[in-house]
Amino acid sequence: xxxxxxxxxxxxxxxxxxxxxxxxxxxxxxxxxxxxxxxxxxxxxxxxxxxxxxxxxxxxxxxxxxxxxxxxxxxxxxxxxxxxxxxxxxxxxxxxxxxxxxxxxxxxxxxxxxxxxxxxxxxxxxxxxxxxxxxxxxxxxxxxxxxxxxxxxxxxxxxxxxxxxxxxxxxxxxxxxxxxxxxxxxxxxxxxxxxxxx
Length: 198
Known about the structure:
Number of domains: 2
Strand order of the largest sheet: 3-4-5-6-8-7
Number of strands: 8
Shape: globular
Radius of gyration: 19 Å
Largest sheet: 6 strands, antiparallel
Oligomer: single chain
Structural class: alpha+beta
Number of helices: 6
Distance between the termini: 33 Å
């Protein structure tokens, strides 16, 4: 398997973000059956650390779409115009994020109880060449693993690319998800073009 050269960079950034949040790396020895318990304990401890942030003297309990908008608005990428965001009202409000170089594929961010879902609409089933839907679906299923931080899916009659983050994710992780999705859109268009109508 070919190793993604950017994987080490992403891992390094992830470690730096965790350190900035006051987290430290530890090595522990446990019986093989204890691995799941250790991962659950780690998640609990990390979530407790993150959710104990204080805002205006009160404990922050649940991230909202407005909170996410505010956090994104303060990032360097939004301030310098690399990413343009806006709130779109509806039955469920979402944050639309548009990257300069991929402005025809806006990324929609939805805040739920457990996760932040980032999704981008790619193309419709009617845009696939006649007789090539099954072949395209097989290609996308095989591509799900090598495509970093994203997965392909079909919603109704639309092909989409999406990623999900914990509700407790740092805003920098959300920005990374947005930029990674945008890059993956370009890759998807490139390796799927033979299956799509011109």
